[in-house]
Amino acid sequence: MMTNRLVLAILFLAASASQAAAQDGKVASSGKAEVALRDVPPAVLAAARAARPSFTPVEAEAETREGRRYFDVEGTLADGSEIEFDIMEEGGRWRVVETQRDIGFDVAPVAVRRAAAAHDAAFTPNRVIESSQADGLVIYELFGAESGDPRGRKIEIKWDGKTAEVLKQEWAH
After folding, report:
1. β-pair type (149-159, 138-146)
2. Does residue 152 register a pLDDT over 80?
3. pTM for this one?
């Protein structure tokens, strides 16, 4: 019961804090708060399982972005691969807005790799997240070292199946 109150308090404060407009091209966020699976609303887990019936949740986080409530639910599929769902509350219902998985950069579409090279030929990503959006777009989040910080740089590239575009601002649902 205390955990539920704490989660609700965090979400309320986060929602209040994130009302300010985002500066410098970043999405306004409350920051993520870890949530025990037992405290994740059943409708959130049901949305993840509806997207991938073999999904087994392992951990969850809650946050508020741009005034909207989200749960990030991470877990595994039957084949052992890891996957994460970003699930947003909209009109009192929860829906998957993004499905994420880590991939090798060599698996990204050629056009995405070319767009990254055209943007910065010296940039070598050490992590790539493929973020499939509910509307069919795919956002490739490329992370690489900058000034010795291995998490120091992020480039996002939008892929619509035909065209790859380096984004100037962080992608928001």
Report:
1. antiparallel
2. no
3. 0.75
